[in-house]
Structures are given as C-alpha cells and as structure tokens.
Amino acid sequence: MLEGQFAPQAPFSGDASVVKSGATFFIYHTCYAVDRQGTDTCLATSQDGATWTLVDTGDAQSQGRVLRSEIGAWDEAHETPFAIQWKGETWLYAIGYSPASTGFFGAKKVQLAVARSKDGVHFEPTQGPLFELSTLDSHGLTSPTIVEHEGKLVMLYTGWCLDAASCPRVKDGKLVALLGATSSDGVAWQKRAEPVVLDVPMPWASQGIAETHLLREPTTGKFLLFFQGLSSGAHVLGMGWADDPFGPWTWLPDPILKPDDVGGWASGGLVAPHVFVESGKSYLWFSGEETDPTTGKIKTFRIGLATADGPLLIAP
C-alpha cells in the first residue's frame, strides 16, 4: 500500500500510473503539496509493486514531487497523472488548474499538461494546455490514458460537464463522458468529434464510467478498458474490451473489484484503476477512499494493489 508522504497521520495518495524500468516499478501518483495547499504529482519506486519508497527529488516541502509550477500558473495544481515511456523518454501527462486550493470541482477550467524526462525522475517544465475544451469536457478533464496504435498515440480521458443547460445529462446525475484524441508527436492532439462512451448497461455504473486505464492485452491483442463505475452507491471497478481503442466495447457484467473485497480503508469506494501485465502476472493498482463513519465524507486516499496469476483472458 502507498499512503503518501504524510502517512500515517494524514495518508493521501491516489491516481496511480505505473511504468517499469529493469526490475524497478515507478509509480507516479497524486500527492499533497504543502506550499500549494493542494495536489501535485509525486514518484515512488518498488521492486515488488507493493512496498514503495518515495524518490528523493530534492523537494524539501513535498517529498517525491516531480511536477512543480509557479503559484498563479494555469497548472498550479496537478492531478491524475499518466506516464508513458516513448521515444527514449518518460512522458508524464497530468491535468492542471489554478488556484490549487479550490480542488478539481472548484476550478473554473481544468486542462491537460505534459512534461518529459530522460531518467523518469527529473522533468522539464510542463507544456500546455494541450487542447481546447468543448461541451462534454467544458468543466475539464481527468485521467488521461494513452497507448500506441497504428503509428500514433491514442488517448482516452474522462470529460466533465457540470452545466445542465449545455449538458442535459447532468439532471440525471451523469456528469462524465469518455472522450478520445490522437497525436503524432505527443503534444499536438486532435480530439474526436464523437464521444467514445456515454452510457453503459450495468446498474453499478448507471451514472457513467470515469478514471479509465487502457491497455493492449498481450495474449489476445484486444484492448482492455479498466474503469471506475459511477452510481449513487460506493464506486466499484469494472472492465470492458474491444478490437479498437475507440470501441465498440463489450462489458463484463459484474465489477472486478468492490470495496468489500478490500476492507475498511476503502469504505467509500474504489477509483482510478491502473493495470500492468508481465510474465503471466497481472497487477491492478487502485485508489481506496476511506470515509468518516460519523459524517460519511471522504477523509483519506490510499493506493492498494490486487494481483492475479495468468493472462487477462477475454470471455467469448
């Protein structure tokens, strides 16, 4: 479990994105930035994917922090990072907004940034915003997830619209849409005109899917989509598959992981899945929300791990 730089007094760590270099796992994650009074992106390493050590990045205020911007910049705060090893570098995408203290829902506009690194630890300043927002992501976006496909980078991300006047779905509690974009250089992105996913048939995701992770299954070659199912109950994790990264999708009818499978530290729900497959073993990292039993409000985030032996085979 990864609890963040202020555990055990104030555990806060979420939105795992994992890459591997040699025998070492690198986990980029949302952490707390003292000087911003908000969130940023930190890095820890592990040899087994379960026990983590925050990397010494020379940041005295937020141990392990790898992204940092000036106070007042458009990306004063960062969340939901995604790392991809591409062209001999680590490309680290994250959403950004300002001021940091408002959080995602309090920000006026939440956009996408990218930073690059030769060693996966020391990153150049962020570039962005990378594309303009439109109707279904008019408030902003979260959780970019990227794969290489047919010579381009393909991105899926969660678009958020909070305005019922422009998005009638908001009246039914449906604030999210899964959207897509492509790029040849990792910086200039072309958004797809149509959403990738709006609604799914499972009752445990009646308000849509969010915080997705896309990967290509090495055994079947199919694209797997792991996601957080949104409903009026506690969030659970689900999975779908397709022959193309933009679908159409076939959905597993039942969740793959629920809060009851994890324990009290994830009593509020499971979010932000990230899956890594290697040598016949599958790793599923996820964020657990712990709620206050008195108020019901979320008080902490931690990153946990579930594993499975064998390939991620797809049902017919």
Primary descriptors:
about 325 residues; mainly beta; Tachylectin-2, Chain A; 4-stranded antiparallel β-sheet; 18 strands; about 45% strand
Hey, roughly how much beta strand do the residues contain?
Answer: 35-45%
Q: Structural class, please?
A: mainly beta
Distance from N terminus to C terminus (CA atoms, Å) equals 34 Å
Helix content: under 10%
Number of strands: 18
Write a structural description.
- The protein has 316 residues and is an all-beta fold.
- The chain has a domain at 1-130: 5 Propeller (Tachylectin-2, Chain A), CATH 2.115.10.
- The chain is 3% helix and 45% strand.
- The chain is built from two helices and 18 strands.
- The chain has helices spanning 103-106, 259-262; strands at residues 14-21, 24-33, 38-46, 53-54, 77-86, 89-97, 111-117, 140-149, 152-160, 176-183, 190-191, 209-216, 223-229, 236-242, 250-251, 269-278, 281-291, 298-309.
- It has a four-stranded antiparallel β-sheet with strand order 1-2-3-4, with no helix packed on it. The protein has a four-stranded antiparallel β-sheet with strand order 8-9-10-11, with no helix packed on it.
- A hairpin with a 4-residue loop joins strand 2 (24-33) and strand 3.
- The longest helix is centred in the N-terminal third of the chain and has 4 residues, at 103-106.
- It starts with 13 loop residues before the first strand and ends in a 7-residue tail after the last strand.
- The mean pLDDT is 92.
